[in-house]
Model the fold of this input.
Amino acid sequence: MTGLLEREIAFLDALRVAGIQVSLAEVLDSTRAMGAIDLMDRESLRHAFAACVLKRPAHRTTFNTLFDLWFPPAIGESVASEYADDGELLDLADGDGTPPDPSVLRDLLRRLLLEGDEDKMRRFARQVVSDLGRADSQPGRQSWFSYRVLRQLSPETLMASLLEALLAGQERGGLAERVARQTVNERIRQFQEMVESEVRRRLAEDRGVEQVSKNAVQPLAEQVDFLRASRDDMAELRRQVFPLARRLATRLTARRRLGRSGRLDFRRTVRASLGTGGVPIVTHHRPHKPHKPELVVLCDVSGSVAGFAHFTLMLAYALREQFTKVRAFAFIDTCDEVTRFFTPGGDVADALARMSSEAQLVWFDGHSDYGHSIETFAEKYPDAVGPRTSLLILGDARNNYRATGIQTLRHLVQKARHAYWLNPEPSAYWGSGDSATSQYADVLEMVEVRNAVQLEDFVQRLLPQ
Done:
């Protein structure tokens, strides 16, 4: 049992390294859960740990990957190159140890995909990784590769024959075909994941679980840098906007409700002290009125920073109930208000598409011009920034060696209640090349916000206390 506890602690530490928060209380809950389940049932252990430590569905993939490394379904060659067929063991490898014919493996894979039996597919995945995924990377050292297995089996090329077998003469092009196609795609995806999981298991046995676990998982969506996010990463971030906004709004509402009291009511405090011999044991305060400021967002939507600006605009708009007013402005080399595109109940993706096509954001050549954009903003919208305004400027401050508009920006910052510049570039790159961060940082605070985690931390700091 001691060895199992040590492995549990190491697994939970790996979750923390991957970015999943695990508290001490959750560690204790996980330990207690092991005493309430059958430890010989691996899936029960998986579900028990997940119930104790996971808070977000998006973290489940990372959790499963690390669980399979720390609690593998098999060890070494415990599963031989064999496949159960009609109660008989069929050894696919030749007697001299050479790999089996890929055509035979493809036929077996097709049969398994038709049956949809996950246990058999998992056993088959272990077999083919052992037969096809091994390679000598260095003298005396072996390595394992999933692409070698998937390249030889090419499960995607079985789609046509699988559809034909599943439809069995039914009409093509209708609902039946769509359901069959979805079923086949899902089974192929499951098999590919089984192969990749088996490869990770064999690598972990050869190189150590700690080393493999550091590289086995992709960064969580909220940890991906905005400037390096893929289309899938940005789609996942967009799905997180409104849950993130609700979570922040709940915290901020509670913070305002339970926040510090207002100014000291001297008269009531002195009057109350008469009952305690003139000693003010209990102080009285005037009611505290939470302040709800206005929010103005001015963002660069050019080039690679567009994803960062879009995500931040969506988050700011989702938090609009926490502010008296939210106004959004976008620019490339000139500025236009884009608040009109974000209507209550509207589709965010449509709003972003309309903003890109309908807003007047290009004045000269379509390259970033912060100076002209800031001056246009101040000239066209003189009433946008006032003493109740929190001003946010979003961009990497790469100005193509053009005028910076520092004097105009300084005037705007002096008018605003708060002003911050959120920069998605790593701070190590600030001031290099055409970056004007050093000039702008002299006027207002510049904050590094490279991912959703840093943005969430900043929003909690920005919103009213």
User: Anything to note?
Assistant: The first strand starts at residue 82 and ends at 85. The radius of gyration is 30 Å.
